[in-house]
Protein: 1-phosphofructokinase
Organism: Rhodococcoides corynebacterioides
Amino acid sequence: MILTLTANPSMDRTVSLDVPLVRGSVHRSALTTTEPGGKGVNVARVVTSAGRTATAVLPCSGSDPLLSALGTLGVRYHAVPTSGVARTNLTISESDGTTTKINEPGAGLAPETVDALMASVLELAQRADWVVLSGSIPPGVDATWYGRLVAALHEVSAKVAVDTSDDPLSALAAGFPATAPDLIKPNAEELAHLTGRDGAALEASAAQGDPYPTVDAARVLVDRGVAAVLATLGGSGAVLVTATGSWFATPPPITPRSTVGAGDSSLAGYILADLDGEDGAGRLARAVAYGSAAAALPGTRLPTPSDVDVTAVPVHTLDSSPAVPQS
């Protein structure tokens, strides 16, 4: 079973345009969709569509439309009662794949709700293979919360993945190795923030066929106790670094339509491959294949196995460091 925590869930409304977005103009949408969202919810949706069992833990009122939407999609959930309703996030998707997101902050949670969420995760984790802590945390929740959860989850056998940003990510890293998870999935900007690099430079280097700056940055986190770093680099591909090796994969050619859920799909693909016993190269290939498939789909649609072609993803096993040119 895959357990996901979405502490700040949402209903994701996507407006698709046939023309470029122009500030101050009036546009007519080509397509509008509304689906349950939040990063952990997205991971649970992708895992469920692949035929695996996933349970999404989230704070939610029993009358919130988010829960009925999850039920319609066949996604199992464990809702911790709260008085507020899920926030609404707006995505504007242009025909060339450009995506503009406007995310509400979400309602704050009472301390007893935060405690109940943590207790639910720790209880359900006893029966899980992976626990995924994804996305932002609600206003008012201490930034160290993910780190405390990871440290507590070290007492169970489940592997732990974390995909977050900003203060929660910084607080998590500040606690390494005690708060180090089995997998962390930063994008280039997040990896750069944690390691003092330049995110744009990491992506640019990978786009030119040199992933070693990203590998070196990810190695910093592995040396601090993280078991695996899956660094996603947008259209430049992705890098996987563990204590025993590193790999670089480039995405297949696609026509990008929306980046919504691409990172979450990559994380789900990695976990699905791990459950199937794949090695590092196989886990990275599945991650990139799922992320690319998500980017090729419209709106908030997430990939199913029929959308994914792992054979189209080339994976390169890397040396521990790049070759030094001979003078």
Residues 322-327 have pLDDT under 50 and may be disordered. The CA atoms of residues 257 and 298 lie 5 Å apart. The radius of gyration is 19 Å.
